[in-house]
Design a protein that fits this description.
Chain lengths: 109, 471
């Protein structure tokens, strides 16, 4: 579980907080949607759809310096490759938890 | 002000690029997929185009090659901006791009973009970068590699199969097309990608195709249609790929001309065979009619009553067999005849030829529509002939009118045909099985041949119940 601070996150990619906020808000919205798509794809064992959605989250997470997400997504990708769909759902929940942490930090700012 | 187009399906990247490039003095337009990008460049000639590689609809690689072939974009620099660059080796120059920047954290991306744009601007947008820029800021991972390899395998297969594969957006624009489909449409990839399917197919297909595609979009079960083009026939199947966004329709067009041609050849051969069989039935019927006529001539020359009866009986039996051949020759079915129709005609003919002006016989035949094959129709016809002949000869001795009833019913184990007359009945000590006449011998042996049984009862006349296995 990562501890989030907007100042720390923004400084990681040399952004001002006010420039960082609209991007992280957009990230939360799109990642919510991607994680839902992964959950739906897990139910029908759709490896390709899971890969595409992992790729989508991964790109934006790296752009925004969200390393915890990158690690979780790397793990999810390995599970997908091995066909361990039941375990992917657990990692999706961890990602949602991380996302909520960031959301709470945003709401407090 | 220099113009930039950014094509990326990730809204976070689009927003960042818009903000970053605008702040640096560029006029920016963004597109979330290749279709929108191709629409934009119809009226907007950017100085720089940034293209992501993994996108819905049209993949980045294909988009770059289409953009590169556009003469009006010859001065435009195309820069691939993709995380894939950190995972697999990309020959972006072969794709038609001038530079490739690996996606990393935004601060690094910003620096690399500024550097790249400055370098390009100072070289009149003509410089090609030989190495992927920004790899040092991205740690190697293999999240997308698997996806890329799977896609590559899939594409190699799709490009080499003989069936045409076309993927459409929901507004019927072509977002993927394989080599077989390009040959089918006789067009090049750059001319068909992003164009509407209906601008590329035969206009005679429009109506059927639009109805078919609308059904597919509604999830209806009719998933294939057959369409023709000249002498060629095609089977078109479709699959609606439904995701939360970017829904597409995949069309598979299979050339079935050869299959159709073979089907027609087979139909012609079957038709020829049917004609030949009918001809055989016709000839057998004519030969039996000739035999019947010869017997008739013999009847005219015979004075002995017993011989006359024998000749007439023989003629009736031959006529009943000839009638089966006649019905098979005239009917549509080469193996089966309608039993109800056959029995009616058979009994009517017998009564016509055997009854006299002193004896009026009515017939009540209650038969459902039953089909019976040739092998069963002939013996059953002879049985009915014998029973009718027998009734006409012996049941109405001294009477002037009578009624013959023939009925059919299904039973638990098969079927029953009941033949009844309202004549004088048969002596109680008479047994069908032990009768010595040729007629009853024929009846018992033919019932046995049909795996059936026959029972005689006196019920206001004679009543024969023939039990048979189901036809």
């Amino acid at each position: 579980m990562a501890e989030y601070s907007l100042e720390v996150l923004a400084s990681k990619i040399e952004f001002d907080v006010e420039d960082y906020i609209p991007l992280i808000e957009l990230f939360i919205d799109t990642t919510d949607s991607n994680l839902s798509d992964i959950s739906a794809a897990v139910k029908i064992s759709d490896k390709e759809s899971i890969s595409v959605n992992i790729h989508n989250i991964k790109g934006a997470a790296m752009n925004l310096g969200l390393e915890a997400f990158t690690v979780l997504l790397g793990h999810m990708s390995k599970l997908n490759k091995a066909g361990s769909f039941a375990d992917i759902e657990e990692v999706v929940l961890k990602c949602m938890f991380e996302l909520n942490q960031i959301r709470e930090v945003l709401e407090k700012s | 002000m220099q113009k930039v187009l950014v094509v990326d399906n990730n809204p976070v990247v689009l927003q960042y690029m818009d903000s970053f490039l605008s702040k640096n003095g560029y006029s920016v337009k963004t597109a979330e997929n290749g279709l929108i990008a191709l629409d934009l460049v119809q009226n907007y000639i950017p100085d720089y185009i940034f293209v992501d590689l993994i996108m819905p609809y049209i993949k980045g690689e294909l988009l770059v090659s289409i953009l590169r072939e556009r003469k009006d974009l010859s001065d435009t620099s195309i820069i691939i901006l993709s995380g894939v660059a950190a995972e697999i080796e990309l020959d972006y120059i072969a794709m038609g791009a001038d530079a490739c920047i690996a996606k990393g954290p935004f601060n690094s991306i910003g620096k690399h973009i500024s550097h790249t744009l400055n370098e390009l601007a100072s070289n009149g947008n003509k410089r090609q970068f030989e190495q992927v820029i920004g790899l040092e800021d991205v740690f190697k991972r293999s999240i997308t590699e698997e996806l890329m390899v799977a896609n590559l395998h899939g594409e190699v297969i799709l490009e080499s199969i003989s069936d045409c594969i076309i993927e459409l957006s929901i507004d019927y624009r072509i977002v993927y097309i394989n080599n077989a489909a390009l040959n089918f449409l006789n067009k090049s990839k750059k001319n068909v990608i992003a164009s509407n399917l209906f601008n590329n197919i035969d206009s005679t297909w429009y109506e059927d195709f639009i109805i078919f595609l609308e059904k597919i979009k509604k999830g209806e079960t009719s998933k294939s249609i057959e369409l023709s083009r000249g002498d060629e026939s095609f089977l078109i199947t479709a699959k609606y790929l439904n995701s939360t966004k970017d829904n597409t329709i995949v069309l598979i067009i299979k050339d079935i001309s050869l299959q159709k041609q073979r089907e027609q050849e087979l139909k012609n051969k079957i038709s020829e065979r049917e004609m030949m069989i009918k001809e055989v039935y016709h000839r057998v019927k004519n030969n039996l009619a000739m035999v019947s006529s010869i017997i008739n001539l013999q009847v005219g020359e015979t004075e002995n009553d017993e011989a006359l009866r024998a000749l007439n009986d023989l003629r009736s039996r031959i006529d009943s067999i000839a009638m089966v051949h006649s019905k098979l020759f005239r009917g549509k079915d080469l193996n089966n005849i309608h039993l109800d129709d056959y029995i009616m005609d058979l009994v009517a003919n017998l009564i016509d030829s055997l009854s006299s002006s002193e004896l009026i016989i009515a017939v009540d035949i209650t038969f459902p529509e039953v089909l019976i094959d040739f092998d069963k129709a002939v013996p059953l016809g002879i049985i009915i002939t014998e029973l009718t002949t027998n009734a006409l000869k012996y049941a109405y001795d001294g009477q002037t009118s009578g009624l013959i009833t023939i009925s059919y019913r299904d039973t638990e184990n098969g079927v029953e045909i009941v033949f009844a007359d309202n004549g004088i009945g048969i002596s109680s000590d008479f047994s069908v099985e032990q009768a010595e006449s040729l007629g009853f011998n024929l009846i018992t042996s033919l019932v046995m041949q049909l795996n059936g049984s026959i029972i005689l009862e006196n019920k206001n006349g004679a009543e024969f119940t023939i039990s048979l296995p189901r036809f």
